[in-house]
Design brief:
343 residues, alpha+beta, Ribosomal Protein S5, domain 2, Alpha-Beta Plaits, 2 domains, 4-stranded antiparallel sheet, 11 helices, 11 strands, globular
């Protein structure tokens, strides 16, 4: 039994979403996979060949004890630090399994789960969210546990919370990987699966070294404190890009989506979260007829996306220009499409 969950990129709304504004993400055609086999063993076995090469095993008693520590934590960072002995790579998945055992009667004995991912790590494409979504659905299927979508997403988010040591992590990434397609998110409305089936071709571009997302978020926070009026004006305009982008997608207006992307990037650059490499790529996209291009994620370097008519052709041109680029499409199906027992 195998479950596949797509990676995710942010189409529009980065940084503004931190201040309650609307953001838009899309699932993409690179995947994490979790496969489950049933054995005669007495423990849950979790295999992570891509990350550590080790196999980890947990009894039901161990998982219940782990969840007790998780529920009683003073901070998510403290919980992660206190359980380093378990193994940092496996702790997110053990935490998910522990919650399923404690709250939803998962019987872990004899389940052997292997997690693989073709999603590039630490590039802003939500590899951890996709792995957590695939793993959660795989366990639910194996144990025939019916749960509503919102509960599945919240359980899968435990993985991202532990990985990023942040209780707010995973809200848009896990939702998008679970649902597939296009998801909008704001603090007031939460994550919403948009009824959009527009197919788009994107280039995922690595523009080089990046500064940490925490540093970029902190930079915008300082701008907000020191010049609130100007910063709010930019954040409002970024939200306008998100709304116009959704409208364009709903009407299959790819050129309109591209204009929103270019405009969004210019606004993010005004916030100071772009980089020379990101700006160089966006300028290349303008010169070469892309519909749109922008940074994706926290900024400060690293991931960018380009929207174009022929991603394979443009990808070859980008390689000649010295960029690392990969052509992908929107993935309209997420991990939910593999879940057989939705409540």
């Amino acid at each position: 039994m195998e479950v596949r969950a797509p990676g995710v990129v942010k189409l529009l709304g980065e940084h503004a979403v931190v201040y309650g504004k609307l953001a838009v993400a899309v699932a993409i055609s690179v995947y994490a996979k979790a496969s489950v086999n049933e054995t005669e063993g007495k423990s849950l076995v979790i295999r992570l060949p891509d990350v550590s090469g080790y196999d980890y095993s947990f009894t039901e008693t161990e998982l219940r004890e782990l969840f007790s520590g998780f529920k009683g934590r003073q901070s998510i960072r403290g919980y992660a630090d206190d359980h380093r002995g378990i193994g940092e790579p496996v702790l997110p998945y053990a935490t998910i399994a522990a919650r399923l055992v404690a709250e939803h009667r998962l019987r872990p004995a004899g389940l052997d789960v292997c997690i693989n991912s073709e999603i590039p790590l630490q590039k802003g494409f939500a590899s951890s969210a996709a792995c957590s979504a695939a793993f959660t659905v795989a366990l639910l299927n194996a144990s025939k546990i019916p749960l509503p979508d919102e509960t599945v997403i919240d359980i899968a988010r435990e993985g991202d919370r532990v990985i990023h040591k942040n209780d707010g992590a995973g809200s848009i990434d896990v939702s998008t990987s679970y649902y597939g397609g296009y998801v909008s998110y704001s603090a007031s409305a939460g994550a919403k699966r948009e009824k959009i089936d527009t197919e788009i071709e994107l280039l995922l571009v690595d523009t080089g070294p990046k500064r940490s997302t925490a540093e970029m978020v902190g930079h915008v926070s300082e701008l907000y404190k020191n010049d609130k009026t100007r910063t709010v004006e930019i954040l409002d305009q970024i939200e306008d890009c998100s709304r116009s982008g959704i409208d364009a997608l709903k009407s299959n207006d790819i050129e309109g989506l591209g204009r929103s992307m270019f405009a969004d990037h210019a606004l993010l650059a005004r916030l100071g979260v772009s980089s020379s490499g990101l700006d160089e790529f966006v300028e290349f996209a303008r010169r070469n007829g892309f519909y749109g291009a922008k940074l994706s994620g926290g900024g400060g370097g690293g991931a960018a996306i380009g929207l174009c008519a022929d991603a394979a052709k443009m990808g070859a041109a980008l390689h000649k220009a010295g960029f690392d680029a990969r052509a992908i499409t929107a993935s309209l199906e997420g991990a939910k499409s593999f879940y057989k027992f939705i409540a």
